[in-house]
Amino acid sequence: MKRICVFAGSNPGVNPAFEQVAQELGRELVTRDLDLVYGGSNMGLMGRVANAVLAAEGKAIGVMPTGLFRGEIVHTGLTDLHEVGTMHERKAMMNDLSDGFIALPGGYGTFEEIFEVISWGQIGIHSKPIGLLNVAGFYTPLMEMVNHATLAGFIPAMQGDLVICESDPAVLLDRMRDYKPPVKVNKWSELEK
Fold first, then answer.
1. Which of 14, 31, 119, 156 is deepest in the core (most CB within 10 A)?
2. pTM for the full model?
3. pLDDT tens for residues 124-160?
4. What are the residues facing 33 on neighbouring strands?
5. Which residues fall within 8 angstroms of residue 137, CB to CB, at 6 or more apart?
């Protein structure tokens, strides 16, 4: 792995641990000589992780659609900033630039981004590691929902391993480094095996 895409809230959230762990993740990326790829904002947890990377003299690569420049404050100190036309182009470029994905706490946008890369992994578009940084139990309900969907027959049991969930950035990155994609299975239960 050379570059990790981090999806994160454009707000800092109410728990100080969210900001602290975002900064810890940024420093850990630099310690491991991993570049950050992210949404390009200077706000919220997005900005916190990027600022931590840059303060530790690492590389932070932003990807932001032109239309968001008014709503989000673009980070002007990045190593590289890619301006794209749409959110779809943003996500595609972030995928192309990255060797793995991590979601910090966030809202609808963060959920949508991480679930898209999980879906892409499930159907074989990529085989990159996907991690949830479970700060203060933030992603515990989501992992319970994934387990619920597995038990209900909507996610093949072996594909639960598509997502790595850890509360410590170093442990998460270790597990992502050692990641082996689950054996490909037929995700469609009504098709012949």
1. 156
2. 0.93
3. 899 999 999 999 999 999 999 999 999 999 988 888 7
4. none
5. 167
